[in-house]
């Protein structure tokens, strides 16, 4: 049984759904319009200064760093028309590189989409990458991709693999279906808690709700308690449902932050089977980052190969020959071309799946070894795409 996600109740943030995203399509042009208006307003401000004309400037016009307020501009022009130019401090200061530098490193002003409700591990991953970011909950993974594509947010954070449960295949497929770039990774130590209504003992629980990955990560603990497991879209939604239904015999596997947000009690801490339960998340953006060599970088690629003996061996050799370490290899059936007929001489033809290969390797695209390896791979890969080159996260 799967409990479908519904927008959050009594919470400031409502997750974006696919419907919501399409509705917001028109809001996007509004946003663009707004931006161009702002640019235009700035131009007006400059023009009026250059012409030294007293132009009425409305209060809500943006005060760009280094530019004085509208009132100040009027005062300067007033002074100058009377022939004095005393207070140099009132003159607008030219913009410096610092004023127009990119977003601050701590992530303030960055909007990051994630799948789930507040308290989900994906939100924790977003906050690990950008401690002061604004997190934006989305109902599905696809909504998070679209939120970036439609400029509703700056980035999306998505789980890609877990040390116990393995790969999150849906996100591998979505990476290829969308044109976003991987700009970072987050390794998050996931400590699951068994949550229940205040005053409930864990022996009273008959069922537990959670994300299927989280349930799988706590398989042994939950089996020993003999509790029925029910899938939910994310761990925070599970916690929220236990709180809103008020069922004393129902618990949730979720984070301690989810317990805090939804007013549940932690009945058991660290209920995952493996203490080092680590989920790796990818950070996606509209634009790739410019790779460097000043720190450790990882590059992710996806490719397909012609059929034949040893082709995968050859593909992997392009990295081995240059001493490049591979950190992950994943294969997914190719949906547009699922089956390959290899032998139709006998009765009934033999058919095999055709695969996409996803590889992560430890090298920056700024490193000639990586460039040469991909150039070499391109010689015999039918299709090759670089999904992103990004700094490695080495501390879970
Ligand atoms: O449900 C959540 O809280 C999530 O962020 C999703 C998710 C996942 O998809 O793997 C993330 C981390 C944990 O491994 C369990 C669940």
Topology, pairings included?
Layout: E1 2-3, H1 18-51, H2 70-81, E2 111-115, H3 121-129, E3 134-138, H4 141-149, E4 155-162, E5 166-167, H5 169-177, E6 181-189, E7 193-196, E8 207-210, H6 212-217, H7 219-225, E9 228-232, H8 235-245, E10 250-254, H9 256-262, E11 265-268, E12 278-285, E13 297-305, H10 311-320, E14 326-333, E15 339-343, E16 350-353, E17 355-361, H11 368-378, E18 381-391
Parallel strand pairs: 1-9, 2-3, 2-4, 8-9, 8-10
Antiparallel strand pairs: 4-5, 4-12, 6-12, 7-10, 7-11, 13-17, 13-18, 14-17, 15-16
Bound molecules: prephenic acid (PRE).
What do you see in this structure?
With 396 residues, the protein is of the alpha/beta class. Helices cover 32% and strands 27% of the residues. Helix 10 packs antiparallel against helix 11 (368-378). The radius of gyration is 27 Å and the shape is globular. Mean pLDDT is 79; it is low at 1-14 and 18-85. The structure holds prephenic acid (PRE). Residues 116, 120-122, 159, 162, 168, 190, 211, 213-214, 234-236, 279 line the site of prephenic acid. It catalyses: L-arogenate + H(+) = L-phenylalanine + CO2 + H2O; prephenate + H(+) = 3-phenylpyruvate + CO2 + H2O.
């Amino acid at each position: 049984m799967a409990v479908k996600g519904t927008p959050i109740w009594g919470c400031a943030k409502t997750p974006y759904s696919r419907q919501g995203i399409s509705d917001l399509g028109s809001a996007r042009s509004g946003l663009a319009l707004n931006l161009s208006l702002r640019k235009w307003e700035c131009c007006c401000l400059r023009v009026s200064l250059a012409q030294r004309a007293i132009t009425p400037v409305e209060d809500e016009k943006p005060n760009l760093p280094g530019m004085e307020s509208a009132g100040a501009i009027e005062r300067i022009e007033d002074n100058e028309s009377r022939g004095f130019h005393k207070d140099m401090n009132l003159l607008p200061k030219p913009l410096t590189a610092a004023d127009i530098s990119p977003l601050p490193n701590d992530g303030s002003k960055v909007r990051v989409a994630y799948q789930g409700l507040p308290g989900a591990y994906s939100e924790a991953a977003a906050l690990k990458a950008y401690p002061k970011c604004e997190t934006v909950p989305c109902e599905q993974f696809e909504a998070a991709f679209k939120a970036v594509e439609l400029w509703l947010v700056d980035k999306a954070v998505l789980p890609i693999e877990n040390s116990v449960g393995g790969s999150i295949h849906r996100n591998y497929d979505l990476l290829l279906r969308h044109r976003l770039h991987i700009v970072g990774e987050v390794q998050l130590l996931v400590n699951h808690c068994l949550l229940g209504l205040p005053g409930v003992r864990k022996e009273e629980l008959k069922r537990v709700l959670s994300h299927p990955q989280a349930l799988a990560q706590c398989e042994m603990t939950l089996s020993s308690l003999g509790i029925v497991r029910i899938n939910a879209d994310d761990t925070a939604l599970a916690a929220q449902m236990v709180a809103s239904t008020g069922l004393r015999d129902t618990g949730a596997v979720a984070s301690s932050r989810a317990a805090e947000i939804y007013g549940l009690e932690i009945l058991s801490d660290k209920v995952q089977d493996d203490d080092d339960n680590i989920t790796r998340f990818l950070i996606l953006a509209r634009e790739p980052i410019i790779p460097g060599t000043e720190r450790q970088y990882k590059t992710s690629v996806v490719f397909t190969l012609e059929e034949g003996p040893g082709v995968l061996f050859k593909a992997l050799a392009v990295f081995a020959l240059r001493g490049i370490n591979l950190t992950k290899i994943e294969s997914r059936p190719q949906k547009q071309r699922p089956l390959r007929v290899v032998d139709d001489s006998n009765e009934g033809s033999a058919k095999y799946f055709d695969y996409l290969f996803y590889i992560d390797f430890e090298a920056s695209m700024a490193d000639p070894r990586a460039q040469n390896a991909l150039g070499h791979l391109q010689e015999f890969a039918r299709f090759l795409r670089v999904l992103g080159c990004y700094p490695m996260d080495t501390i879970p």
